[in-house]
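Exercise 7.
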Amino acid sequence: MTARPLVLASASPARLRLLRDAGLDPRVVVSAVDESQVVAVEPRAVVQELATRKAQVVAGGLSDALVVGCDSMLLLDGRVLGKPADAAEATARWQAMRGRTGTLLTGHTVIDAGTGRAASGVGATDVRFGRPTDAEVSAYVATGEPLRVAGAFTLDGRSAPFVEGIDGDPGNVIGLSLPLLRTLLAELDVRLTDLWAS
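Solution. The predicted structure, written as tokens, is:
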């Protein structure tokens, strides 16, 4: 079987690293989707709509690739929270998350640009936050990291010491669920192992 080109419709270095660590070598094509145009309201539907839009935009310019689109947000108190707008919002977010559990939702869409077929799903992982002090939160926000990531935290970065544990797939929290990706590829009659880089 000839290996199919894999394209990641995301600028996320964490997603790219996950795919590369799993033996894949995707090309990155960033979509310019306006996230403010989402019509979905239910949290899982929001992340799924964004993931699908990103994949569709990129797949539209390709002829034979498998395009992976993802979008992550933190569900807390019934609201989905993406990247904080500024340091003040990141600080307030962490003050609200301390000692609590949120659910990191990641929408995934895989589109076979050659056939137009698509498969989608949402990964959900519960995240148990620790209780960083105000000084620790201020130091973390000052790094700028929480402004670049959904939920204002990372599992594989500077805020890792402030996460007490998770229930579910850690990759999903980092930005892409590899088990879910494998399932979605299988729905499109593609084996993930056939995409391994040589």
